[in-house]
Structure formats: structure tokens, C-alpha cells
Amino acid sequence: MTTPTLLLREPDDFHLHVRDGAALAAVLPFSAARFARALIMPNLIPPVCTTAQALAYRSRILSALPADTRFTPLMSLYLTDHTPAHEVDRALASGCVLGFKLYPAGATTHAEAGVTTISCIYPVLERMQEMGLTLQVHGELTDPAIDVFDREARFIDAVLAPLSERFARLRIVLEHITTRAAVDFVLGARAGVAATITPQHLLLNRNALFTGGIRPHHYCLPVLKSEANRQALCAAVRTGSPRLFLGTDSAPHARSAKESGCGCAGIFSAHAALELYAEAFESIGALEQLEGFAAEHGADFYGLPRNSGRVRLVKEPWSVPSAYPFGEEELVPLRAGERIGWRVERDE
Ligand code: DOR
Ligand code: ZN
């Protein structure tokens, strides 16, 4: 019997955290081995707020790449209450920046400098709309009185739905969607609205946070949701909607920062990102939708050419190490010490 194999157009990761310095060098090769391009998130300390900072960060990423890879980092700028509208013109002129990331202040890791009042960014949104740059959104309200599992749905009602009507031509990606509410919003929204989905939100529900004890390596933001919500995400990708595409939100943190009295949010999945999506799509009988999701919808949404290379997914299980080196520390990946059903081969 021959091993099942899938030949796919080279995919892109439209939501990726690679950090900086030694951490960058440790994690970048995993993404470069699977993806042709990735949209790099700007939540460094200090955040990547200007085009000049993004270009410098992009150079550091290119320098950290293994010699035999061609991988293109695409950049997003971190919005603050003070981002000037003319930054949009600089960003566009750079040719390397796809858009701006809206972190509601305090919503997640390194979001302290994010936006406190949405009207502060109206001038920059107006200019983005005119110039065709995309707003990437971390869609959660931060009010501590709101139940953590409701923050995405409440953000959509209170902020995103009105914003997408007010700026009716603004291109918007609701990042890492986790709920039926988000699926309904995105699939029913006006043209120019799309969403990314992570592997963990397709594969896991919130029980995974508590299996036999507390599981810090399954903690990310937006937090894992109920099984009903997970199934809504799976059903949505099975439709093959061009509004939904791959964004891993792979977010590395040192083991010590995760296994702590106050552990950081973020799941590292770059070591097996495409393989994990293949498992998720296979489990819902949707492998034929994987190529669109991973390699076509995102490029089309952003107006980028689809990649011309190919990757091969082979259905052969392999064991994920219990940890990877991470500078002076270690990094615990998703599925640490367990098996993954697919592996990737790159066709050059
Ligand atoms: O879990 C998360 N980790 N969610 C985010 O939005 C940020 C990310 C990170 O940078 O660690
Ligand atoms: Zn993220």
C-alpha cells in the first residue's frame, strides 16, 4: 500500500510571532521550512510601531534565516493611540508592510502599548482605507468584568461590527477566531473582511487546558473555547470560504515563562504547523480544502501572487520532541512528547 501523500502549493502563515535575538534564531527555521511567507507580528518590546522599525526588524529576520531557504517576512505595524496617519504612506512606500495590527491595550502578551480608545485611530484607519492597507485585529474586549470566554463575541458587537461599517472600504482581518460568533460575523460581513484560524483552535477545546491538571502549554489568547465553538470553526473551514485562511499565531515563550504562577499566553506550533492543520482538516473530512486555506485565500485577500513552489505532506507519524532549544532556555511545542500523523517534505 502506498503512503497517502498530498501535494500542495507552498503555503503562507498570515499570523506569526518570531520574537527577536536568540529566540528568533531558534524558531524561524521551523516556519521557513514550511512556509514561503509569513506575516510577522509586531508585539516586541518595544513594539514595532514605525516603518523604520519594521524594516530594521525585517533585516534581522532575514539575517536569522538558514542559508538554504527563501522565505519572505511580511510586516505589520503595531498601532498605538498616537500612530500618525502619515505612517500609512511610509508603510505602503516600503513595499514590505501589509498592514497595521490593532491590539486593544492589555489584551494579550506585550499589548500594554496598544490602543486604549478606538476613536484615537480613526485618522490612521481612514488613511489605511484610502491606501488599501489591511487592519489586523486582535478581537477581544479587555474589560476584566467580562467573562474571558465572551471577550471575542463582545468585541465583535461593541467594536468590530460598528468599525467595519464606519470604514466600509477598510480591509480587515479578524485574527485567530475562536467562536461561532466570529464565524457568523466574518462569513456574513461585507466584502473585504476575512479571518485567520490557528491549528489549536481547530484541534482543541477548553478541556485541553485542564486534562489531568492545569496545562499551561495549552494557554493562549484568545483562550481555547467550548467544543461547540470548535466545531463551528471546523464547519466554517469545511465550506472552503475564501474569507478564511491560515494564521498559526505560533507564539513561543520559554518554558519557565509558561510553567509559572502567572504563565504567559502563547502556543508554539511552528515546528509542525502545516502538519497540525493537515490533521485537523483530515479529521473533519476536509483535506481537499486545505490548499485553499493554506496557500490561496490569504494571498488572494492580500493581493499577493500565489506561491509557485510545492510542499508535500506525507501521512507518516513522527514523535514531537519534549522541548526544543530556545536561546539559553527551552521551548515546549504543541504536542510535546506525542505523535503527529503527517510530515512535510519540501519540493524544490
Ligand atoms: O496567545 C497569544 N500569544 N496570543 C496573542 O495574542 C499574543 C501571543 C504572544 O505574542 O505571545
Ligand atoms: Zn498573535
User: What's the total helix number?
Assistant: 11
In whole angstroms, the N-to-C terminal distance is 26 Å
How much helical structure, as a percent, in the residues? Answer: 25-40%
Strand order of the largest sheet: 2-3-4-5-6-7-8-9
**What CATH first level would be assigned?**
Alpha Beta
What portion of residues belong to β-strands?
15-25%
Number of E-type strands: 15
Low-confidence runs (pLDDT<50, min 5 residues)? none
CATH superfamily: Metal-dependent hydrolases
CATH fold annotation? TIM Barrel
Quaternary structure type = single chain
Q: Name the average pLDDT.
A: 97
The shape, in one word, is globular
CATH architecture identity: Alpha-Beta Barrel
Whole-angstrom Rg: 19 Å
3D structure, described in words:
The protein is α/β, with parallel strands linked by helices. It has one domain: Metal-dependent hydrolases (TIM Barrel), CATH 3.20.20.140. Helices cover 33% and strands 18% of the residues. It contains 11 helices and 15 strands. An 8-stranded parallel sheet has the order 2-3-4-5-6-7-8-9, with helices on both faces. The chain is globular, with a radius of gyration of 19 Å. Residues 15, 17, 41, 249, 251 line the site of zinc ion (ZN).
